[in-house]
């Protein structure tokens, strides 16, 4: 694999992207679709974390919640309110789907901030599947619920008639660019932050620079904590916005 | 596969200090895509089922129950407040009654005392009046007595003076003269 190309040359060696390499957990074979890799491990940990928070944390069913239960309720209320406010009351039936996306991204992002961990959401394969799932859901749902009226999304009836075909093309392009931006925004943000931290960490090998490097890593880490949540939030709220187009296509 | 990703990964490779063998972006290593996608779908399905089967109904139930409890508690508090207001009204009423009762008792007692006082005063007045009348009578008697004595003394003195002058006078003429003089 590519990572084995790096030799130990002494001095400054940067491997900022090595942390993203997908490798088998057991042994050194090629990566088949069924191979248990670090992706499997960290997604499994994310599922476990969600299980611990949402199921084990709420097992008391307390009227006055424990700490973990109140975090679970907070997450529930946060996403529920977002769906209700952005997409509308009739979109509440999609809440489990959106909540699944949100919880997965939040857990993957934060688990990725643990040193030596693997960040599943830094891979375009993962975010592209998430974004495409949203895109396909929205498109299919739009046509199923509204029929051909869904195309009204591209026909801006408030614009002058002469402009409408041009606007329709622009709208169409922007519609198909959505999944791309949706996917690259998340993976790009997460990947960039992690890579920058790794680069700073590489500088720490020089004794004179290392204090600055450690400070920089600390600052970047703080920023990354923010980014981890904000990107999950952005992904989720954009999902809600796109879903709103499917439910209420009128411009 | 490294050659496919070579172009896109050149920047990253430069950073790594290796231009010859591609360090590449592992993100663009398409051979791992199927693996990631499979495990992602497995994870998402697992999360979806955990959430929809267990977690979300439970949290929703807890939230609904809490909302219900809060509503009930507020209603109960409202009821208690109403009761407290009633109790306060009753208390105020009792207080007012007690005050009125006290005022009545005070007035009654005052009237009684006044009546007793009046009776005592009247009795005392009567006694005083009786005593005064008695005293007046005594004084009148004494005065009467004094008048009679004056008449007697005048008659005797007149008789003595007349006899001393060597004349004889009858008692009747003297007493008539004295009576005329005393009257005048």
Automatic annotation (TrEMBL), chain A:
Entry's localization field: Cell membrane; Membrane
Record's keyword terms, sorted: ATP synthesis, Cell membrane, CF(0), Hydrogen ion transport, Ion transport, Membrane, Transmembrane, Transmembrane helix, Transport
Transmembrane segments: 33-57, 94-118, 124-145, 152-177, 197-218, 225-244
Major subcellular site: membrane
GO CC, alphabetical: plasma membrane; proton-transporting ATP synthase complex
Entry-linked Gene3D superfamilies: ATP synthase, F0 complex, subunit A
GO MF annotation list: proton-transporting ATP synthase activity, rotational mechanism
Domain of life: Bacteria
Topology of this chain in the membrane: Multi-pass membrane protein
Database matches in InterPro entries: ATP_synth_F0_asu (IPR000568), ATP_synth_F0_asu_bact/mt (IPR045083), F0_ATP_A_sf (IPR035908)
One Pfam family named in its UniProt record: ATP-synt_A
Record's signal peptide: none
Family, similarity comment: Belongs to the ATPase A chain family.
Function of the protein: Key component of the proton channel; it plays a direct role in the translocation of protons across the membrane.
NCBIfam families with a match to the protein in the record: ATP_synt_6_or_A (TIGR01131), PRK05815.2-4 (NF004482)
Protein name: ATP synthase subunit a
Organism: Pseudoruegeria aquimaris
Automatic annotation (TrEMBL), chain B:
Keyword Coiled coil set for record: yes
Sorted UniProt keywords: ATP synthesis, Cell membrane, CF(0), Coiled coil, Hydrogen ion transport, Ion transport, Membrane, Transmembrane, Transmembrane helix, Transport
Pfam families per the UniProt record, alphabetical: ATP-synt_B
Subcellular location: Cell membrane; Endomembrane system
Membrane topology type: Single-pass membrane protein
Coiled coil segments of this chain: 70-143
Chain ranges passing through the membrane: 37-56
GO molecular function, one term: proton-transporting ATP synthase activity, rotational mechanism
GO cellular component: endomembrane system; plasma membrane; proton-transporting ATP synthase complex
InterPro entries: ATP_synth_b/b'su_bac/chlpt, ATP_synthase_B_chain
Function per UniProt: F(1)F(0) ATP synthase produces ATP from ADP in the presence of a proton or sodium gradient. F-type ATPases consist of two structural domains, F(1) containing the extramembraneous catalytic core and F(0) containing the membrane proton channel, linked together by a central stalk and a peripheral stalk. During catalysis, ATP synthesis in the catalytic domain of F(1) is coupled via a rotary mechanism of the central stalk subunits to proton translocation. Component of the F(0) channel, it forms part of the peripheral stalk, linking F(1) to F(0). The b'-subunit is a diverged and duplicated form of b found in plants and photosynthetic bacteria.
Family according to the record: Belongs to the ATPase B chain family.
Quaternary organization: F-type ATPases have 2 components, F(1) - the catalytic core - and F(0) - the membrane proton channel. F(1) has five subunits: alpha(3), beta(3), gamma(1), delta(1), epsilon(1). F(0) has three main subunits: a(1), b(2) and c(10-14). The alpha and beta chains form an alternating ring which encloses part of the gamma chain. F(1) is attached to F(0) by a central stalk formed by the gamma and epsilon chains, while a peripheral stalk is formed by the delta and b chains.
Alphabetical list of HAMAP family matching this protein: ATP_synth_b_bprime
Name by which UniProt lists this protein: ATP synthase subunit b
């Amino acid at each position: 694999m590519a990572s084995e190309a790096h030799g130990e040359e002494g001095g400054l060696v940067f491997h900022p992207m090595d942390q993203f390499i997908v490798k088998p957990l057991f042994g050194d074979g090629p990566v088949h679709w069924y191979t248990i890799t670090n992706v499997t491990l960290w997604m499994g940990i994310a599922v476990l974390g969600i299980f611990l928070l949402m199921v084990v944390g709420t097992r008391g069913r307390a009227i006055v919640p424990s700490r973990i239960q109140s975090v679970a309720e907070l997450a529930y209320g946060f996403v529920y309110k977002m769906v209700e406010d952005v997409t509308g009351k009739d979109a509440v039936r999609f809440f489990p789907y959106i909540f699944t996306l949100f919880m997965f991204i939040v857990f993957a992002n934060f688990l990725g901030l643990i040193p030596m961990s693997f960040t599943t959401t830094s891979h375009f394969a993962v975010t592209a599947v998430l974004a495409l799932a949203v895109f396909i859901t929205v498109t299919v749902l739009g046509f199923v619920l509204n029929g051909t009226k869904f195309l009204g999304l591209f026909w801006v009836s408030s614009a002058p008639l002469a402009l409408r075909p041009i606007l329709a093309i622009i709208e169409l392009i922007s519609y198909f660019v959505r999944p791309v931006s949706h996917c690259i925004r998340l993976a790009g943000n997460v990947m960039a932050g992690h890579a920058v931290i790794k680069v700073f960490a590489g500088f720490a090998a020089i004794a004179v620079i290392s204090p600055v490097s450690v400070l920089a890593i600390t600052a970047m880490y703080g920023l990354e904590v923010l980014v981890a949540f904000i990107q999950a939030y952005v992904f989720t709220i954009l999902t809600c916005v796109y879903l709103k187009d499917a439910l209420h296509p009128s411009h | 596969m490294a050659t496919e990703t070579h172009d896109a990964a050149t920047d990253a490779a430069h950073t790594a200090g290796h231009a010859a063998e591609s360090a590449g972006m592992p993100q663009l290593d398409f051979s791992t895509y199927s693996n990631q996608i499979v495990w992602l779908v497995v994870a998402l399905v697992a999360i979806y089922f955990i959430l929809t089967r267990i977690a979300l109904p439970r949290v929703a139930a807890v939230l609904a129950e809490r909302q219900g409890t809060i509503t009930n508690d507020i209603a109960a508090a409202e009821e208690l407040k109403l009761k407290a207001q009633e109790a306060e009204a009753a208390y105020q009423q009792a207080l007012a009654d007690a005050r009125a009762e006290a005022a009545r008792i005070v007035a009654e007692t005052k009237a009684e005392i006044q009546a007793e006082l009046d009776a005592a005063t009247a009795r005392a007045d009567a006694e005083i009046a009786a005593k005064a009348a008695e005293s007046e009578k005594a004084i009148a008697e004494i005065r009467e007595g004094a008048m009679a004595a004056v008449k007697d003394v005048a008659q005797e003195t007149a008789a003595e003076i007349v006899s001393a002058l060597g004349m004889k006078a009858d008692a009747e003429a003297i007493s008539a003269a004295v009576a005329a003089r005393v009257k005048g």
